[in-house]
Design brief:
Elements: H1 9-29, H2 42-56, H3 81-94, H4 101-114, H5 122-134, H6 140-153, H7 159-176, H8 185-210, H9 214-239, H10 243-256, H11 264-289, H12 297-300, H13 303-312, H14 318-332, H15 338-341, H16 362-383, H17 389-406, H18 409-428, H19 435-456, H20 459-475, H21 481-484, H22 506-513, H23 520-524, E1 567-569, H24 571-578, H25 583-600, H26 603-625, E2 627-629, E3 641-643, E4 654-656
Parallel strand pairs: 1-4
Antiparallel strand pairs: 2-3
């Protein structure tokens, strides 16, 4: 009766209404009747649900009734089969329980497939909105799982059909996100990322087989519709998750980003396919991180997430580097200052921007001590890449956001050193950069130091920065962002390295900041990026200078290292070491030698010494914690002190001889 096709429209409607009311009576009877156990079986649902959907299709304005299920009112007054069928469908779903939910939903997919209602998908979206508003909230994840399963089932269908199913999933998630999505979070993202990879594969297959074929090119464009729908769904779903789940999803997506030649997936896709997947996944990550307000940067930018993210910032493709920087901005910017910093420029008065900031927390200080050099290194190396205007703008914003959100006096000092090192890249041009890149780096440094000088508000520092900018405005405007990033800017033919008035000088900066709480000595040490492989980025290196006894640890032959020499210390030697006369002069001389070594010594030698001294510090701390004193083996008064060591157990490191002296 529900499928009546009588020639007379009025009689057809009456027959259909009678059929729908019959189904409605059966549904209502299931509440207090033994039929309750049998009506939910698949053979019954496969007849009831399609009958209702067939009549609902006739609704001219489906969207007008989208919303939470309404109470069926006055069945005698409802003359439209479509309205009556929808109310009956809502009642049916409202009575569904955990065990029979899937039996009520699966016939919907069969009906939509049979009648080709995924493209266009307005009716499909309407049906699933009714389902989501009618069922009990705790069963929402069952519906999402069914849609994901059907997406897998139709994975070889046309792009428009898959895009239609993904759009239905998006609408379903939008409703489920208001309640409980349940345990399907990871499954949703895993399935969507799998279909994203599959869509890229289809797109590349169509591109390889197109050779001028219009139909193949059309499918290639349609695959991009699928990809955009997936990214939109991932972003919407991610933005509605609680923070702890969002962090897990960010890690999950980052773990899926392929690296050229490093994964089996990248070798199967080829360079072009790997690049497409990388872009799509980073776009998805950008959507998930949008609006994420981390209370602690250390929580969201943990090493397992930060290391691969920053590694992606050094890829050759400029679009990939842009996406990485935008993801960083989403996570670092906790006060929505990014919009105020948009556009790299010389800001006359930073106070007009009304920058919002809080006092830097202990967690953020700890984060910068642990990962600051890692961030500086990637900014430094990122400036050396083949960049376009947007890349330099994003690099400028990154520096500004670090200044606002994470900078104390020590970080400001390091940022100034980094800025001067960037200026040296352009001046020395050891990497043979094109003139546009050199001028752009100079403009980036000018814009950032102008911003930084006004943020820390040290008059002498501001004066030096302003003076250089004024000189550039007259003599070399291509060193300023307003000129170099202007359309059709004429590049200078030569780069004048000798005119010091055009450059920011560290000597004057150190002099101007020395009396304002900033370390002039630290400023005087040139910035050198960590020389380390990508898999060792999280390992910190530092130079350790102490006034204590130097112990040379030499590598022995074979697989084990041994300490080959010890140092004998007499009573007179100790007395001399304790004497503080002239200690200040010794310290000054030592600092001078360190600075001179950094300026003149080969980089490999400096890196090797840094690693050696870092290891030595670790060993010495272990020695202090595990120090033991053995009694004199003979009455000669000789005392041997042995410090435990991780790698050199039971090997005497110090042998200290004190004649006629007993030490307890």
């Amino acid at each position: 009766m529900c499928h009546s096709c009588h020639d007379d429209q009025e009689i057809q409607n009456e027959i259909r209404i009678a059929g729908i009311r019959g189904i409605q009576g059966v549904v209502r009877k299931t509440v207090n009747d033994e039929l309750r156990a049998t009506i939910w079986e698949p053979q019954h649902m496969d007849k009831i649900v399609p009958s209702l959907l067939y009549n609902m299709q006739k609704t001219e304005d489906a969207d007008s009734r989208i919303g939470p299920p309404s109470s069926p009112a006055g069945g005698d007054k409802e003359e439209s089969p479509a309205v009556l069928a929808e109310n009956c469908f809502r009642e049916l779903l409202a009575r569904a329980t955990y065990g029979n939910m899937n039996n009520a939903v699966k016939p919907v997919f069969a009906h939509l497939d049979h009648h080709k209602l995924w493209d266009p998908n307005e009716f499909a979206v309407h049906c699933f909105k009714i389902i989501m508003y009618s069922i009990q909230a705790q069963y929402s994840h069952h519906v999402i799982q069914e849609i994901l399963g059907h997406l897998d089932f139709r994975k070889r269908d046309s792009p428009r059909v898959r895009a239609g199913i993904i759009q239905v999933l998006l609408e379903t998630i939008a409703i489920a996100a208001k309640g409980s999505i349940g345990p399907t979070v990871l499954e949703v993202f895993n399935t969507l990322l799998k279909h994203l990879s599959l869509s890229v594969d289809f797109e590349l297959g169509n591109r390889r087989g197109s050779s001028g074929d219009i139909d193949a090119r059309s499918k290639e464009c349609e695959e991009k519709i699928v990809q955009n729908a997936i990214i939109q769904t991932i972003g919407f779903f991610g933005s509605n998750l609680p923070d702890y789940q969002r962090s897990e999803i960010m890690m999950f997506i980052m773990g899926k980003v392929p690296v050229f030649g490093m994964t089996s997936e990248s070798s199967q896709l080829g360079d072009l396919g790997t690049r497409r997947i990388q872009i799509m996944l980073l776009r998805s990550l950008l959507m998930v991180t949008s609006g994420y307000n981390a209370k602690s940067i250390a929580t969201v930018l943990s090493a397992p997430f930060l290391d691969p993210l920053l590694s992606a910032s050094l890829m050759e493709d400029c679009e990939l580097r842009q996406l990485v920087l935008e993801v960083l901005h989403n996570l670092i910017d906790r006060h929505d200052n990014r919009a105020k910093l948009r556009g790299i420029r010389i800001i006359p008065d930073v106070s007009d921007l009304k920058i919002k900031r809080d006092k830097i927390s202990r967690q953020d200080v700890s984060f910068m001590k642990k990962h600051g050099q890692q961030l500086y290194r990637h900014i430094y190396l990122g400036c050396k890449e083949d960049n376009v205007h947007k890349n330099f703008e994003l690099l400028y914003t990154t520096l500004a956001l670090i200044t606002i959100e994470l900078a104390n006096e020590e970080v400001v000092t390091d940022l100034i050193r980094l800025a001067i090192a960037l200026q040296d890249i352009a001046i020395l041009n050891e990497d043979n950069l094109p003139m546009f890149s050199r001028c752009s780096i100079m403009a980036l440094v000018a814009a950032y130091l102008n911003f930084l000088s006004q943020m820390i508000a040290v008059p002498a520092f501001c004066q030096h920065i302003s003076k250089v900018i004024e000189t550039r405005t007259v003599e070399s405007p291509s060193f300023l962002p307003e000129t170099i990033f202007r359309d059709k800017c004429s590049l200078p033919k030569t780069f004048d390295k000798d005119d010091k008035s055009l450059f920011f000088l560290m000597s004057k900066i150190a002099e101007s900041l020395g009396g304002s709480g900033y370390s002039a000595e630290r400023l005087s040490v040139p910035y050198v990026p960590q020389a380390t492989d990508e898999d060792r980025l999280s390992r910190r290196k530092s130079i350790v200078d102490t006034v204590s006894i130097q112990v040379d640890i030499l590598a022995g032959s074979g697989t084990e290292a041994k300490v080959n020499n010890t140092e004998e210390i007499t009573f007179e030697a100790l007395k001399k070491a304790i004497d503080t006369t002239g200690l200040e002069e010794q310290e000054k001389e030592k600092r001078r030698l360190v600075i001179e070594k950094f300026q003149k010594a080969p980089f490999e030698e400096i890196a090797a010494q840094c690693e050696s001294k870092a290891t030595l510090l670790h060993d010495r701390l272990a020695q202090i914690l595990e120090l033991t004193i053995r009694p004199p083996p003979s009455p000669s008064g000789t005392l041997t002190i042995t410090a435990g060591h991780t790698h050199y157990q039971s090997v005497p490191v110090y042998e200290m001889k004190f004649p006629d002296l007993c030490v307890y």
